[in-house]
From TrEMBL:
Keywords: ATP-binding, Cell membrane, Membrane, Nucleotide-binding, Translocase, Transport. One of its GO terms (molecular function) is ATP binding. Coiled coil: none annotated. This is Phosphonate ABC transporter ATP-binding protein. Gene3D superfamilies: P-loop containing nucleotide triphosphate hydrolases. It is found in: Cell inner membrane. NCBIfam families: ABC_phnC (TIGR02315).
Amino acid sequence: MLTLKQLTKRYTTGDKALTSVSLEIPAGQVAALIGPSGAGKSTLIRCVNRLVEPTEGQVFLGDTELTGLSSRQLRRARRRMGMIFQEYALIDRLTVMENVLSGYLGYTGFWRSYFRRYPQPVVQQAFKLLQRVGLENFIDKRADALSGGQRQRVGIARALLQSPEILLVDEPTASLDPKTSRQIMRLIKELCVERQLAAIINIHDVQLAQLFADRIIGLRAGQLVFDGQPEQLDAEILTRIYGEEDWNHASESGDVEEVMDPSVSQNHAQVTLRAASV
């Protein structure tokens, strides 16, 4: 379980990116972080693995307080947290397999990784993961020859190779077309169920959050303003998160697109939205 207690991030300018955010994410739960740009979603994810240092508060992964660890202890603890990036963070000149194996760097020494000397069981596990994400025929292809969806699948396999307890996912569909976005979100959801992984996903697409997340967490100006089930999102709650808007009609400017989906219940289909650039 991931636990945040009164997590706060204040910059040297005095501005707060997060203000006293408290959450618990149990194993197996997929939680979607939604909110306008600048709400603190990416900051929250990066405070968990301390890519951004919190100013106040505590972060626990199981019984381990991550905010109290030394640099050496933190390197070991990061093995338990898989990070999936918006821009994939792949090394373009390396092959798909080499990029996936880089997920094992937290367990191996520098020189073994430099000379690509990974234990055979780890290589076999990497191959199984590539099969699971549908890339078994791309093992020797360079990363820069892949499509966006394929690159994201490599990033997912790389994160899973370190056998994490939680996935921290930062805008996984921001650069993908609608069909590929659904495939990626469905894959993340399935893998979390299969492996009983907790996941926090920073996502702008409210429709995708409703379809694939177990829980919706709304941030606005660094504060927690909603924490509940996807079906609870209505016009009032969306206004609380994003601000005033006619949520029952498509925006003439195209900033907010209303999406009717047959898989979404009739009760909240009218507010199933894609906040593409909010």
